Every structure is written in structure tokens, then in C-alpha cells.
């Protein structure tokens, strides 16, 4: 995955509705939660 896609995945939330696609930028706490979730998933897949 390219760095820009990873950054967007960690700092933005995308909601798809029948009428439109809504992109919302996360606050620093939300972005940190996304980062931590990704780290936990990677760790789990490597060692569990």
C-alpha cells in the first residue's frame, strides 16, 4: 500500500450513503485510536 493511502485510512472516515460519499477527518484522538487498532491487528496476525 502506498503511504498516502495508509495516511488517509488512519486519519479519515468514509461513510457511503445511497445519495453521496461523506469523508470526515478524524481528530487527533480518533486518529490515534485508528493507529492503535491497526497495530493490534498486525501484531495479532503475526503472533496469534
Automatic annotation (TrEMBL):
InterPro entries: Myosin_head_motor_dom-like, P-loop_NTPase
GO cellular component assignments: cytoplasm; membrane; myosin complex
Gene Ontology BP terms: actin filament organization
Record keywords: Actin-binding, ATP-binding, Motor protein, Myosin, Nucleotide-binding
Any one GO molecular function term: ATP binding
Superkingdom of source: Eukaryota
UniProt domain Myosin motor: residue ranges: 1-48
Family, similarity comment: Belongs to the TRAFAC class myosin-kinesin ATPase superfamily. Myosin family.
Protein name: Myosin motor domain-containing protein
